[in-house]
TrEMBL record:
Main location: cytoplasm
Catalytic activity: GMP + ATP = GDP + ADP
Gene3D superfamilies tied to this protein: Guanylate Kinase phosphate binding domain, P-loop containing nucleotide triphosphate hydrolases
Task of the protein: Essential for recycling GMP and indirectly, cGMP.
Protein name: Guanylate kinase
GO cellular component, one term: cytosol
Keyword vocabulary terms for this entry: ATP-binding, Cytoplasm, Kinase, Nucleotide-binding, Transferase
Residues holding ATP: G22, P23, S24, G25, V26, G27, K28, S29
Cell location: Cytoplasm
Pfam families: Guanylate_kin (PF00625)
UniProt domain Guanylate kinase-like: residue ranges: 15-193
PROSITE patterns linked to this entry: GUANYLATE_KINASE_1, GUANYLATE_KINASE_2
Amino acid sequence: MSDGTGAGPGARARSRLTVLSGPSGVGKSSVLAELRRQGPDVHFSVSVTTRKPRPGEVDGVHYHFVDAGEFRKMVANGELLEHAEFAGNCYGTPREPVERALAAGRPSLLEIELQGARQVRAAMPEAQLVMLAPPSWDDLVRRLTGRGTEDPAVVARRLAIAREELAAEPEFDEVVVNADVRSAAARLLDLVVGPAPDVR
Ligand SMILES: Nc1nc2c(ncn2[C@@H]2O[C@H](COP(=O)(O)OP(=O)(O)O)[C@@H](O)[C@H]2O)c(=O)[nH]1
Ligand SMILES: Nc1ncnc2c1ncn2[C@@H]1O[C@H](COP(=O)(O)OP(=O)(O)O)[C@@H](O)[C@H]1O
């Protein structure tokens, strides 16, 4: 597969930044939890969000949960690498931890939605964009409703956004279909860590 940069096979291998996007309910959290088990040396960005925590979500682990005022302050101070509004809440990537990890040569992963992925693409063209896709639209609907964490109006809103996100697939360098969590995580880990230099 081409690295999409036109700069030769080494260019993507040198990029240590991977952006993972995919519609709500496709299995991003599940695949990333598995990836953490498989790939301990990967830096996972922890986003800030104004969304309320779901049961089981831990502040500082799944997200930094902030109020709208704190979020605005971080934007104004230039502390976010990218940020976007999604289904009525704000989300953003703290800049400093990602820059520190990249400076140390550590593979780093951002799990963010489409508008944020586009901002990263514009700011850092060498970043690798990966879409996590469902095996089918019906699977996506089943997973999102089956999770049971959003009420029906929120589910409908997220599914409407999901159609647009899936339509943006051609903007991504790679697509990983999440039919099975373990194999999707293994494939993603290959992309995040990159192939060994001598096989390119
Ligand atoms: N742009 C941007 N999107 C984010 C960030 N963190 C999370 N998201 C995205 O926001 C969307 C909603 O996330 P969330 O409320 O956790 O719902 P979930 O994806 O259904 O689990 C998802 O598409 C996430 O990938 C971020 O820092 N920036
Ligand atoms: N490969 C899979 N097969 C079946 N169900 C899955 C798979 N991956 C995730 N799920 C389930 O789908 C629901 C949504 O997954 P989640 O990881 O919360 O998605 P996201 O973070 O993308 O919103 C959860 O109930 C999860 O257990």
